[in-house]
Design a protein that fits this description.
CATH class of the largest domain in chain B: Alpha Beta
Strand content of chain B: 25-35%
Strand content of chain A: 5-15%
CATH superfamily of the largest domain in chain B: P-loop containing nucleotide triphosphate hydrolases
CATH architecture of the largest domain in chain B: 3-Layer(aba) Sandwich
Oligomer: heterodimer
Strand order of the largest sheet of chain B: 6-7-8-3-9-10
Shape of chain A: elongated
Number of strands of chain A: 5
Helix content of chain B: 25-40%
Bound molecules: adenosine-5'-triphosphate, magnesium ion
Radius of gyration of chain B: 24 Å
Order of helices and strands of chain B: EEEHEEHEHHHEHEHEEHEEEHEH
Number of domains of chain B: 2
Distance between the termini of chain B: 31 Å
Strand order of the largest sheet of chain A: 2-1-3-4-5
Largest sheet of chain A: 5 strands, mixed
């Protein structure tokens, strides 16, 4: 009953706190507008990957001419056919062009060579863009390097693959949810605790026969509920308005979100211990959020980072969360196939909660 | 005699600074005890330690027999507390604040509603019950804070400058509530800066720089400050000396002479003095005890200490 009284009080105060309400509503909206609408309007460039097994001068000239194509954008380079196929299957790129070994040698001899194009057929408009672009670039390349020989000696072989059919907004949805789950609870709980410190309301509160755990858990429950509501609203907008598709089990997505959310709440409590007032708490929450975003793997793929940056990513909870959520949402994996991410997040949440509960003292001096 | 509060050798250090220094104090059950002292005397620190909001550096505290801080859990059930700084939720309404704290005291449902309405009526806050606490005037805030402190019918009210910054008529009304509560056997420990208010207390403790420099009823304190009661007597004729009595001040005004005399207890010695003067052939025109204000006492004692 006392616990319930505290939950209700927090929710009531939150309802009257316009600034926090605006933040809760605006974070998912702004992020979705930035990534969603900004990216989903196809800029005309389709992401592809390159695997160059030849690695000799003429193959690089060929790749250079692909680079110049207006409709294509080289997003990744692979080292083997398998790796290339995986990139398409996972939806990282829409196609991978595999230049075979012996490409340069073959062309110099005048014999014909075969270039394999592994293409994602799940979105037909995109695969046709790739086909026509590849046809045009190959034709032009032949003309340039062998003016005398008009016969077609570069043969394009297409290998169809069905990728996850990921639209850009879909690929950003895990990031949007990650941002909501990190920023909203951390800010709300640290502000709520600092507000009590600042206004001296703890002094009255702890003169009543209420336990420290009731106070803390009351706040935790209130902001847990608030964040979940915010997350469902965000997902709802993504699904209903932007036709985002969630392949895996909703329950798995909720479970992994809950664990990450608990970690964020713990983090928020720790921030409130270190901050003197609401402003400091707010700043600290954002200060921690920025590296979390950078090393989340959602803006820049972790594989592209330097080894030392990868180590930082290994310690970024947001990275594990986005990886897990992405796998559930886009690939339909179940939580049990994501034990690495899940255990990392569980350790994070437990650690944060425990330290926060130990360090957080509710005293006047 | 059972005491409401017993404090022995209470000391609080902030670093090297002693905010409260070896304080001994006993507050009787059912009395109104006032703690007076200039800014920074250590009143709030003392009160916070009594409430267990802060741990003492040294010394023992008992509230209705419960040791603080060891048995604080039991003690706070009988303490109603009003902090010096308004410490209720400004973004909750009057009613919501009372409802929230009521629930924390384990009062629920219809009992809670009835208790709140009773208190709102008692404190004349009913018409403001839906106003946000942050939008209340100073006087209304103080009444609300008193209301919250009274929710669980405490035996001991601890009020830290409840009337600071409040207009005199509202202060008077506030003391009306306090006296009403005191009649129902509520012990009150109160700090204040207003000397006129302190006259309402049964006993007063004067604090300065962390020490309790005097303790007693307002009357006793006045005697202590001046070493007795002051009386002013106007007589016809001349007078230079009064055998057993000390003349503090003499003003000659033509035929008449006005004297300020110090008596250790006016109620006993004034008749004697008058009889003596009569015997000495002096015609007494007027005789009255001088009403020393607590303010004078306060200034004098603080200066001396
Ligand atoms: N938390 C603290 N840390 C350090 N010093 C403190 C702390 N709290 C109080 N003090 C100091 O202790 C002394 C006594 O303060 P206290 O608040 O008890 O005085 P007070 O009698 O209530 O004064 P006022 O009439 O201004 O309310 C002051 O000098 C104050 O600066
Ligand atoms: Mg004070």
């Amino acid at each position: 009953m006392k616990l319930l009284a505290i939950v209700l009080k927090e929710l009531r105060q939150l309802r009257r706190d316009t600034r926090s309400l605006v933040m809760i509503a605006m974070i998912p909206l702004i992020v979705m507008l930035l990534f969603g609408i900004g990216y989903s309007r196809e800029s005309g460039r389709v992401g592809i990957g390159i695997v160059n097994l030849d690695d000799k001068p003429i193959s690089w000239i060929f790749i250079d001419s692909i680079k110049k194509v207006q409709t294509l954008e080289i997003k990744a380079y692979g080292k083997s056919i398998e790796e290339g196929r995986r990139m398409v299957e996972e939806g990282n790129v829409y196609a991978v062009i595999i230049v075979p070994s012996g490409f340069t040698e073959g062309l110099l001899k005048g014999s014909s060579v075969q270039v394999l194009v592994i293409v994602d057929e799940s979105i037909t408009t995109i695969s046709s863009v790739i086909r026509s672009a590849m046809f045009a670039v190959t034709y032009k390349f032949q003309e340039e390097i062998a003016r005398n020989n008009k016969s077609e000696f570069i043969e394009l072989i297409y290998n169809s693959v069905y990728g996850p059919k990921v639209t850009n907004l879909e690929s950003f949805t895990p990031l949007v949810i990650g941002i909501v789950l990190q920023l909203v609870p951390t800010t709300l709980i640290s502000i709520a605790i600092c507000k009590e410190k600042e206004r001296g309301t703890f002094e009255q509160l702890i003169m009543s026969p209420v336990s420290r755990f009731d106070i803390i858990f009351g706040k935790l429950i209130a902001f847990f509920i608030t964040t979940l509501v915010d997350m469902f609203a965000t997902l709802g907008i993504a699904v209903l308005l932007f036709n985002v598709n969630i392949k895996g089990q909703m329950l798995d997505a909720i479970m992994v979100s809950t664990v990450f959310l608990l970690g964020s709440l713990g983090l928020g409590m720790l921030i409130s211990v270190l901050s003197r007032n609401q402003l400091q708490a707010n700043q600290a929450a954002i200060f921690i959020f920025i590296p979390a975003l950078l090393f989340s793997g959602a803006l820049v793929p972790i594989d592209m980072l330097s080894p030392s940056a990868r180590i930082i990513a290994d310690f970024t909870p947001m990275y594990y969360f986005i990886s897990a959520f992405r796998n559930i949402m886009l690939k339909g994996l179940s939580l049990w196939e994501l034990s690495q991410q899940l255990s990392a997040l569980t350790i994070y949440a437990t650690l944060m909660m425990l330290t926060a509960l130990i360090v957080l003292r509710l005293r006047v001096d | 005699m059972e005491y409401a509060i017993e404090v022995h050798g209470l000391t609080k250090k902030f670093g090297n600074f002693k905010a409260v220094d070896n304080l001994n104090l006993k507050v009787k059950r059912g009395e109104i005890f006032g703690l007076l002292g200039p800014n920074g005397a250590g009143k709030t620190t003392t009160i916070r330690m009594i409430c267990g909001l802060m741990n003492q550096t040294e010394g023992s505290i008992k509230v209705y027999g419960y040791k603080i801080p060891e048995e604080r859990k039991e003690a706070i059930k009988i303490i109603g507390y009003m902090a010096q700084r308004f410490s209720l939720y400004e973004d909750l309404t009057v009613y919501e604040n009372m409802e929230f704290f009521g629930r924390l005291y384990g009062i629920n449902g219809i009992n809670l509603r009835e208790r709140i309405i009773e208190l709102l009526n008692f404190l004349e806050l009913n018409e403001f019950k839906d106003r946000l606490a942050g939008k209340l005037s100073g006087g209304m805030r103080q009444r609300l804070a008193l209301g919250v402190a009274l929710l669980h019918k405490p035996k001991l009210l601890i009020l830290d400058e409840p009337t600071a910054g409040v207009d005199p008529p509202i202060r008077r009304a506030f003391w009306g509530y306090l006296r009403g509560l005191n009649k129902e056997d509520v012990t009150i420990l109160i700090t204040t800066h207003y000397m006129d208010e302190a006259e309402n207390c049964d006993r007063i403790g004067l604090m300065n720089r962390g020490r309790l420099i005097a303790i007693g009823s307002p009357r006793e304190l006045k005697r202590m400050a001046f070493g007795g009661d002051l009386v002013e007597i106007k007589v016809q004729g001349r007078i230079d000396e009064l055998k057993d009595f000390r003349i503090l001040e003499k003003k000659v005004d033509g035929e008449n002479c006005s004297l300020k005399i110090l008596l250790s207890d006016a109620s006993l010695e004034l008749p004697k003095l008058l009889k003596y003067m009569d015997g000495a052939g002096l015609k007494i025109l007027c005789a009255e005890t001088i009403n020393v204000t607590l303010e004078e006492v306060f200034i004098r004692m603080v200066m001396e200490s």
